[in-house]
Each structure stands twice: as structure tokens, then as C-alpha cells.
Amino acid sequence: MRNSTHDCDHNNEPLCLSGIIVEPWETDYAALVPRFTGGLSAISSALIIYIIFRSETRLSSIYHRIMFGMSLTDICGSIAMALTSLPMPSYMPKEEIFGYK
Asked: Contact 30/81 with Cβ under 8 angstroms?
């Protein structure tokens, strides 16, 4: 977080909370939103696969094969998206430490 004493009416600043400018990836939302949306997408794709295998035609239909492939690929991508915030360190060094400001 960068401390700031000016008003937060600037359009170029990402987010301002009580006079403190906060980058979007420094908030808890940056970790929670991908987990929620990735998990929801994986569950939805798993439900599509379940419905395909419960149908009478199963994978004999071209449409079901395409939907199965897309859903399987979406499950892999959604799980990857949901787990992307896990390897993030809890503390990120700032520009000031490295002398960039």
C-alpha cells in the first residue's frame, strides 16, 4: 500500500480506501474471486459431463462429444484459475525497498 495524503479523486489510481491507495492485487478479493469463479465454473462443467453420461445417447452424438471435450477442458482451466492465488507470497516487496521510487 502506498500512503497518500491527497484526495482520491484521480482516475489513474486503482483503488482508494480512507486516503490510502491500494492496488487491486493487494486486497483479499484478488485471492477470493478466482477461487469462487473457478470453482463455480468447474462444478458447472462437471454437471454438464454428468448430464451427458446420464443421457440415452451418451457420447455417440457429435454434439455430446464436443460438449464433453469443452467441459473437460474448462474443468482443467477452472481448477488452474482457482488455484492461481495459492503460490502467491503473503508479503510482496514494494518498489521503495528496491529504490524505484
From this structure: no
State how far the Cα of 83 lies from the Cα of 66, in Å rounded to an integer: 26
pTM over cut 0.85? no
CA separation for the pair 6, 19 (Å, rounded) = 7
pLDDT tens for 12-40 read 555 555 556 666 666 777 788 899 999 99
Give the Cα separation of 74 and 37 in Å (integer): 12
Within a 13 Å sphere around the CA of 60, how many CA atoms are in the beta-carbon half? 5
Cα–Cα distance, 85 to 74 (Å, whole number): 18
Q: Are 28 and 90 a contacting pair, CB within 8 Å?
A: no
User: Coil, helix or strand for 20?
Assistant: strand
